[in-house]
Amino acid sequence: MPQNNLSPREAQILTLLASGRSTKEIAAELSIADSTVNWHVGNLLTKLSASSRAEAVAIAYRSEALDPAAPPVPRPATKRPLARVVQVIAGTLANAVSSGGEES
Once rounded to an integer, what is the mean pLDDT over residues 19-27? Predict the structure, then answer.
């Protein structure tokens, strides 16, 4: 199956599927609805004559539509505001302990 049978968006979603992304992760990364991801995945399955996402990825690797030597697509950094708050509090406590509890 040559990759030129796939739309650019389908090729993009196939690459993300091969990187292990879920529907929700793909939707968030591409700023599209879950249902849109599922629509594209359905088109991929039809075009590749695959019965599952895993089979679609395997077919794409076998047909060289995906490069097995290509590095996986990195996951976007997650926003973790609570983790940042914990870091600030821990830093403040560490400073307080190192200064002997004296306020400046």
Answer: 92
23 and 38 Cβ atoms separated by less than 8 Å:
yes
> Does the pLDDT at position 2 exceed 60?
no
Rounded to whole angstroms, the Cα distance separating 31 from 46 reads 24
Give the C-alpha separation, 26 to 32, whole Å: 8
CA distance 22 to 96: 44
pTM for the model stands at 0.65
Question: What residue spans define the domains of the chain?
Answer: 3-76
Sign of torsion, CA 72 78 83 84? positive
CATH architecture of 3-76: Orthogonal Bundle (1.10)
